[in-house]
Amino acid sequence: MAVATDRVLVVMPALNEQASVAAVITHVKQSLPGMDVLVVDDGSSDDTAAQARQAGAQVARLAVNLGVGGAMRTGFRYAVARGYTVVVQVDADGQHDPDEVAALLDALEDADIVIGSRFAGKGAYQARGPRKYAMVVLSLVFSRLAKTKLTDVTSGAKAMGPRAIKLFAGYYPAEYLGDTVESLVMAIRAGLRIKEVPVLMRERTAGTPSHSPIKSAVYLSRAGLALLLALVRRRPAIDSSDSA
Description:
The chain has 244 residues and is of the alpha/beta class. It has one domain (8-232): Spore Coat Polysaccharide Biosynthesis Protein SpsA, Chain A (Alpha-Beta Complex), CATH 3.90.550.10. The chain is built from nine helices and seven strands. The protein has helices at 21-31, 48-54, 67-81, 101-107, 129-146, 162-170, 178-189, 213-217, 219-232; strands at residues 8-14, 36-42, 58-62, 86-89, 113-117, 158-160, 194-198. The longest helix has 18 residues, at 129-146. The model has no long low-confidence stretch (mean pLDDT 85).
């Protein structure tokens, strides 16, 4: 696991996840004792924030829904302000198994960003339809860009070290797919080391998937557009060097 001097913050974006968020927080605290949990309530209209507080998490509430990217940006800035050196993203819907986080932290020993891959040989998770083809294309492109094999670049299960936290606290994309596609392009351009480890992904424990059948049907084109924009867009230069 990450060295003892690391301060680890588990950031949990949550939108209307009152039915699952408390159970996920409890599992995180059991699997990762001593690690702090920040739930970013992304404009929920239900009791997500109250449930998260009762389960023992810190809560940052956003007045409006900004999406996963906007929620994670809040988490990165919280981490910088409070001196955390590792941020782990865990979804509030129960799909990410907290028992897998230790493997992500171990891999940070020689990487700045570790992606938990659903398709690297652990478990039987499968993508179907347009999403499957989009993931294959994105994986091929990013494997070439990052000069390492990446099979699941849209995975939300990630661990990020000090250089990545500093980069993403300065700017983290909030647009659709920006939190995965564009953020990885940013990281590669900044010279960050990216790797992946196999993880198990579970079914949602509550709620409904964020992608409807209609959205899935246009996923391929939107993913391609997101990648194209990420490659041509120029962001302000950000020094991602580790000042620790």
